[in-house]
Amino acid sequence: MKPKTATAVMMMLPAAPGTCVMCATAHDENSPHNYWSLFYGMRFKLKYGRDATHADCCAHMPEKSRPFYRQAVEEAGRKWTEPDSEPIAEPYAESQPFRKETPSETQD
Ligand SMILES: [Zn+2]
Fold this sequence. Notes:
Layout: H1 38-48, H2 54-58, H3 66-75, H4 103-106
Bound molecules: zinc ion.
Zinc ion (ZN) binds next to loops.
């Protein structure tokens, strides 16, 4: 008898307004994405098919700033993680409040 398989579908709500659309955490564009954010980890894995690493979190930052992030991670007693391939740099963007379109905006 052939085993049954199931397909799961997962949808995520967008990040709360005023937070980063990548990690759902309030930070500025020159700071790393929140590696410990469940939102970041799940969104990243769904999009790229692998776990996010510390190197991915800071890949969008200026190159000269990244060693400071690595130092902070290691000083906190955490193991620095890197992907087998090039880190993926996802730029910071702030989530905007949801705004429903009015009928006049949907024409043309
Ligand atoms: Zn972020």
